[in-house]
Amino acid sequence: MExxxxxxxxxxxxVGVMLLVLCTAMVLRYGFGIEGISKFVAPVHGFxxxxxxxxxxxxxxxxxWSWPYMLGIMLGGTVPFLxxxxxxxxxxxxxxxxxxxxx
Length: 103
Fold this sequence. Notes:
This protein is mostly helical. The protein has one domain (1-98). Helix content is 85%, strand content 0%. It has helices at residues 2-32, 36-63, 67-74, 82-102.
């Protein structure tokens, strides 16, 4: 389970940062007419989000999470700042599961 946690954590941060950059790009695009940034950032965020979904599935299957819980974690990459919160909670949960399994 620990081997699946690291990619999840990295991707959660990457998706979170790219989502914040995407929000800024959307404000620039629709508020100020500057379109160049959003044309680059949107596909990058979309690709990273797809990889994030795979990482959540990988970790969730190894940790034997329920489908509703996994879906909630997957939605963490769609709301600004939520992926940082979700990453911290998931890390704590995985460490607690690992400690119980090891004891």
